[in-house]
Amino acid sequence: MKIENLEKINTGFLNTPIHKLENISKKYNTNIYIKRDDLTGFAFGGNKLRKLDYLLKDALNNGCSVLLTYGGPQTNHGRLTAAVAARFGLKCGIIMDGPAPKKASGNLILDKMMGADLYFMDDSSFKNESKEVYKQRYAELLEKTTNEVLRYYQNMGDKVYNIPVGGSSPVGAAGYVMAAKEIKDQLEEMNVKMDYVFTGFGSVGTFGGMYLGSKYFNTGFKTIGISVSHKNEAELQEKVDYIKQTNEFLQLNVDVKLSDMWIEDGFVGISYNVPDELTRKYVYMMAREEAIILDPCYTGKTFRGMIEMIESGKIPKGSNVMLLHTGGAPGIFSESHSEAMQEELWGESQKEFKL
Asked: Top-level CATH class of 3-46+170-344?
């Protein structure tokens, strides 16, 4: 379907603002801007609402009463799927990796506040198997869990709309194809020519949409993806194939080639969503220089990648660059990340007085 004809429902507040990071721009002698998709307005905001604009409309068009999606225990997409379900009178189910935690923190608290049903896939019995065995057993557990959850809702008379990890389907990616046009129009109003836009490279709905949209709408900027998890060659090809499917589904006629994509994989840290001291330093920098809160899983890594590429000369000094802030701040308050920050921050500058 031609993207201009694809129906949607506005689930957040658009257009989100673009502004210059004055202090950090001076620090690195580069014009650094930020696109505030953390300010989409509901449940602490984030990029996933752009995807859910289209996914929700498709669900309603198909008479669905449940939004079912997947992710890690701190999935930002799950949180915003729960938010959309709450606002539009639907049920929400989130199937999550790993055993149920002993206590809720971060996004999990918000998920339950908004009434989401949470389902955990306990992989502890095969967690330490080889990568090949783990992948096979995980696929079996995922199929079993999904089938049981589907039966649960179907037995109650519900119709389920299945949304992949991150909302990264061809329908969902339309949100960021159109975001590229929004950015282009805003920059024209600001009389700013942007050279590079940085975003995270994860489930790839955001990067893929921006890559396609920048070409389809001739925005003039290059989209750079900063990997937030380690991906082997086969996994990378899966992401490229998804972008190709999106291109075909939305009838964009873009020449999609991996060789044309700028993807950086040197800023992952230890692994996906694992506390990482170096990433935290960049999160602290943004907070102290600009009073903007990044998250340690996605935007912290993307910001780190952008700054280190400027420092190394990969991005020429004097360029106009922009960070796409995709949200995710509740992840800071997850148990693992808040614990990792204690020693670095607590006791650093506060004093206690007593009579």
From this structure: alpha beta
